[in-house]
Amino acid sequence: MNRLHVAVLMGGPSAEREVSMKSGAAAIQALRAAGMYVSPVEVRGEDFLLPTGTEVAFLALHGTFGEDGQLQRLLDQRGVAYTGSGATASCRAFDKALAKEAFVAAGIPTPLYVLLEKDVRPLATMQLPLVVKPARQGSSFGVTIVQDRAQLEHAVEQAWRYGDRLVVEQFVSGREFTVGILDGEALPVVEIRTARAFFDFEAKYNGDSEEICPAELDPMTTARAQKLALQAHECLGCRDYSRVDIMLDAAGALWVLEVNTLPGLTPQSLLPKAAQAAGVSMTALCSRMVSLAAARRPVAAAA
């Protein structure tokens, strides 16, 4: 493993490009610390080139093209092993409407929702407060919590700037948690606290939040959250690792919001913090991601 040639793909054309560059830089540092031969690859679109001799592509992209299955499909076509979930699972998890359908079919509790496609009539039957979000976007871009029906039209217009399909779901009031999954096991639960309306882009990346890990939960609730996160990860067909966002309401019920197949790896990111709480350093975390991908290399490439 030590001299494996790893290409770290970062950047991308999405709104999350800046975050991706930071994730990529952190991954490069960790993999080099592990003794691997690392080549940074800045991606801008489909025409990216991998260095000769690349054995594993480490995916540090977020959002459209990186996390939605497009990049994974291209790498499959090129016969290149890569970190994280495959193309189908990535697409399903990134598209919030497809993910919600899968959760409902699997009996996984998720907030009541409707899918909007340029028609707001279904909103008439939903009670406030609501969360309006683009179906295919990350880092909370275009997300609004609507407390007053007068805000609804503006929230929908804002979300439609990021795509023509929206998910509008019932807002769950309570405590917010995230659970990392690594190689088939749930990591310690992280609680997210912020003074903002919700865990938005500013809270995620500009330090306007507090993360408690392990979360201050009783053992039974912790176990329930971890089990639910693993079920959500598996029902979407994810592999290797992910991060599952969950709400705990006042009645003690847990609700799955979404699954992130390529969670951030920046110094502020939650998956590395959860791994650290489990005794897995950033270097060990990124190395594990690479080793899981390396096991999928074509026989000829692995020989």
Structure explained in plain terms:
- The structure is a single chain.
- The chain is an alpha+beta fold.
- Helix content is 33%, strand content 24%.
- It has ten helices and 13 strands.
- It has helices at 17-33, 70-78, 87-94, 96-106, 152-160, 201-205, 219-235, 270-277, 282-294, 299-302, and strands at residues 5-11, 37-43, 56-59, 81-82, 113-116, 130-134, 144-146, 166-170, 174-182, 185-193, 210-212, 241-249, 254-260.
- A five-stranded antiparallel sheet has the order 11-10-9-12-13.
- The model has no long low-confidence stretch (mean pLDDT 91).
Brief overview, please?
With 303 residues, this protein is of the alpha+beta class. The protein is 33% helix and 24% strand. The protein is built from ten helices and 13 strands.
**Multimeric status of the protein:** single chain
* Major sheet: 5 strands, antiparallel
- Strand content is 15-25%
Spatial order of the strands forming the largest sheet: 11-10-9-12-13
Low-confidence stretches are: none
Instruction: Tell me the number of helical segments per DSSP (H or I, 4 or more residues long).
Output: 10
| Shape call | globular
SS content category: alpha+beta
Number of strands: 13
Order of helices and strands: EHEEHEHHEEEHEEEHEHEEHHH
Distance between the termini: 13 Å
**What is the radius of gyration?**
19 Å
Topology at a glance:
Blueprint: E1 5-11, H1 17-33, E2 37-43, E3 56-59, H2 70-78, E4 81-82, H3 87-94, H4 96-106, E5 113-116, E6 130-134, E7 144-146, H5 152-160, E8 166-170, E9 174-182, E10 185-193, H6 201-205, E11 210-212, H7 219-235, E12 241-249, E13 254-260, H8 270-277, H9 282-294, H10 299-302
Parallel strand pairs: 1-2, 1-3, 3-4
Antiparallel strand pairs: 5-8, 6-7, 6-8, 9-10, 9-12, 10-11, 12-13
Helix pairs in contact: 1-9, 2-3, 3-4
